[in-house]
Amino acid sequence: MTSTIFSRLYERLGDLIPNLTGVTEGGIFHASPRIEGDMSMYCTVAKVAMPVIELELAHDEIVDGKEATWKPAPWMVFRVDTLTRTAELLAVQDEWRYEVIYSETDRLNPRRVPMNVLAVNWLTIMINLQSVFQPIAAPVTVTA
Predict the structure, then answer these.
(1) pLDDT tens digits for 11-50?
(2) Which of 14, 38, 90, 138 is least buried, going by the fewest C-beta atoms within 10 A?
C-alpha cells in the first residue's frame, strides 16, 4: 500500500490518541508538556459518525513564564476516516489567520497539501517528544 500524506496523518493521530477508533463524541484528551517551557496540548472529539471522527486540537502557552497567565493558541481540526485509515486537516488557525481546506461551496483550498504536510510534521514533533494524549474527565456543567 502506498503511503500518502492522509494515511500518515491517520497514523500520527493513532500514535497520539489511545484507541483512536473507539473514541466517543465529547471525549477530551490532554498531553502534558514533555520539556520545560513547552505547551499543554488538548484534543476534543467534536463529532463521531462512524466511520468518520472529527477531532479538534488546541494548545495553551505560558506567557512571560507565569503559569497562571495563558493566552489563546493555534488549533487544528481533523476529519478521520477509520474505514480508509486516512485523516485530513479541515481547518487551522495561527497567530495571523484562520484557514479552511474546503470553502462553503466545497472548493478546495490551493494550499491543501502544504497545510496537511504542516499538520503531519507538527504531529510528528509531538511523537518525537514522546507526547501521548490521555483521557480526562469532561468538566461538570450545572444547569438551573
Answers:
(1) 999 999 989 999 999 999 999 887 777 778 889 999 999 9
(2) 138
Q: Is residue 108 part of a domain?
A: yes
Task: Please give the grid coordinates belonging to residue 57.
Answer: 486540537
Q: What domain count does the chain have? A: 1
Question: 141 in a domain, yes or no?
Answer: no
> Which pTM was predicted?
0.83
Residue 22 contacts by C-beta under 8 Å, 6 or more apart in sequence? none
DSSP-assigned beta bridge partners for residue 57: 43, 76
pLDDT beyond 50 at 140: no
Of 69, 70, 122, whose CA–CA distance to 93 is shortest? 122
Q: Does residue 142 sit within a domain?
A: no
